[in-house]
Amino acid sequence: MPQRISIPCILFKQRDGAHALQFALFATTPGDSLSWASIQRRHEDERGQQRRLSTAKIRAIAKFLQQDERNTIAPAITVAVRPGTVTVEDDDSGRSFATLHLMLPDGEDPILPAVVIDGQHRLLGLREFEPDARIAVTALLEADDTEIAFQFVVINNKATRVSSDLIRTLALDYHAQELSERLKNARVVLSSRLELVGIMDSDIESPFHGIIAFESANSDQDARIVLPAAIESAFAAIDDKNIPELQGDDALLAFLSTIWSRIKLKWPDLWTIESRLMHKACIVAVTQFLTDALIHRYDYDGLDVTNSDLVAQETDTILASQAEDFWVVEWKIALKDSKAVRDRIIESLMRIGRNMRANLPWENDVDIVSR
Predict the structure, then answer these.
(1) What mean pLDDT, rounded, does the chain reach?
(2) Which of 33, 58, 102, 302 could serve as a FRET partner for 264 with CA atoms 20 to 30 Å apart?
(3) What pLDDT, on a 0 to 100 scale, did the predictor assign at position 48?
(4) What is the pTM of this model?
């Protein structure tokens, strides 16, 4: 028989409405809470939402509590209780007092009935200080995975902001359209091309397969060297050309994948975290440069931009007049993602192309490189 934990609480709804969540307020100890509530970190668990653990934060909280007996942690931690794992027993007093009955997993099932949404460091810092100390808990009852992801982003984005890459990861995983709409209403806006970025990461034929910096427990995080925002902006650079044939998702994916596959084939040594080419500003600038050149051929020579073989051939022709050393030598400018920097990179690529076609040293008049 599954074990049941009973917790006296105050029960309420913050607002009326059929879809309003029910809350429970109670006090517990760090040790007890971690027997029925898990801390799921995204880089460890694909179901997780939490950021990476900071041992420095935990020690700072424990030290704060040790410094003075008047020091306390007033804010409650927030947990979400999964659907089907809790029953509520009203005390019939006519007030809001009740008892929660949480069902612990039976046998080998590792999924605890609740998950910590906010306060993992406070909880673990208090446990390090005194495992039997009391801490306040706000519990959201019957919260599914999408609700948990939404609450995590909204609660945490108001304090230490959640990284944009983690928000993108959660939005892709938890009913992307539903969560994205709710985040938009909470003024956390995501790109309309986010789902395409996810495909670029998951598609085994994509040049960016497995290297886009989504938080993942099932891959080497150090291998994820390209920011999701870089691919979003690359799609936007193509969208800006307003080419009717590239309006559909499939055509857009094929176009971007084709040009970057040719780059990867030509310069495989630049596919590393140390490579300047993998920086967001450079990915966007190169995409814009190549797209401009390819669209010029579309406008004047009738290039079929939906034909991946033709796009690959034209991309190879353009890259034949580019220098790998440009991405390796020292630059005079600081590499940051701004329009001014991207424009200078594009100007340099245009100059390199002219130099090489004229059989001149590629670096002639390329003013951002140190000579």
Answers:
(1) 82
(2) 302
(3) 45
(4) 0.57
